Amino acid sequence: MTKCVLGVLAGVLLTGQAWGADLTGDWVFQAAPSFPCFTKMAIRQDAAGLHGTITSEWYGDLPMLDLKVVGEGPAGERLVFHIDNGNPKLKPLDLTLAPNGQGVTLTGQVWYEKQEATAHRATAAEMAALDFPTYPLPAPAHVPSNGLARTPPMGWSSWNKFAEAIDDKTVREIADALVRSGLRDAGYVYVNIDDGWQGERGPDGVLHPNAKFPDMKALADYVHARGLKLGIYSSPGPKSCAGYAGSYGHVEQDARTWAEWGIDYLKYDLCSGEGFYHTAETVQAVYQQMGAALVAAGAATGRPIVYSLCEYGRFDVGAWGRDVGGNLWRTTGDIEDSYASMAAIGFDKNGVPHHTGPGGWNDPDMLEVGNGGMTTEEYRTHISLWAMMAAPLLMGNDARSMPRDTLALLGNAEVIAIDQDPLGRQGLPVRKQDGTEVWTRPLADGSVAVGLFNRTDKPMAMTADWPALGLGDHPSVRDLWAHRGVVSGAVHTVPAHGVVLLRATR
Questions:
Q1: pLDDT at res. 262
Q2: CATH node for 3-129
């Protein structure tokens, strides 16, 4: 098991401590699993009973909830409690403290990682050395618009295919592939490095990339020379989702660093920040803090930075995303490469429609097209649904080795035109019946995009009621996947989990 070895091991381990008579005191961990890297505990007893705090490098000082003694006798007594990191979807699991002859052993599980760590009674100096820093948040303020993302951002992101196994060489090859395939010219211009690029901070606090990214400024220059833009990733917490350095305590400094490198896009993922910022007020404030820092850094370099808020749709983020400088905001948790995941997000968790428009967009997460978990028809539904929602189109596949059908899906200019329509209105379902849905989206030229979606596992015959859609009896209709005009009264056979995407003009 990977351990988080602490830097205060000079304290002498005290043996023979009476356990049952006194459960209170200060404790320092010798070593702990790297997630969430517990460092110390303070347990007290007063008229209200036992209470305590356990400190983590990921989540700072956490209250020990429902703290109580169970068992009998010196050998059987133990202390149980649980913690909450602020994620409403994760049920906290119990942790147990038991005597081990020299101190205590912590066991249990915190979300996805089992815990086994020993702690000894600590001096005041040891405890003080492990104090977790806290930083003030700004008062509510409006962050001015950066003027970007007048249509939904389009590009590529590393996470869905590569997770943290991403490096400079791969990013350069992806950039070349976007140019070679024609996808850059189709609008996919952002090349975004997700989690896994971060290294260590220097004595001056500046965050350096890890060994996989030897020169981030040179990488940005390479991407820019190909008519593309470079994106990067961070978190308002101490740790990113994969355990790399976040921007906690270094917000303005990190924004300046990225701007000096030539970064064009930031995805800011709440991750460990949810341990500190788990109310609507604090989450909004911490995203406002980075938004203001990006505007200032971009102004200093003359290169404004697209700001992507990734806080999983909490606290009605679309209602305030623009106010904190955001250009897009996640409406949901992470997508998976399956029809069930994609459909649950796209059909049912697509954000509040009136929040979307030029400069700010509901973001139902990155595309999974080409990663192999869905059929071609399901991927066609994926892209069509995202286009109808005016969602950002961020590819998540290996763009270096796309088969022809994947390239045809991602590069369909007529479908991209729906997504990028300058009116910026999000489409909506107008009919749901027997597992089928009809969606419409008004477009800037007065035409209407119409999606006939079949969510069942068998082909379905579907038609559009043009008069009910305000398009008269015989509009001009074009099938955007077949690339041809169709008779307005046509009955369409929509494949299982498939779509027919139309553009109709009165």
A1: 98
A2: 2.40.128
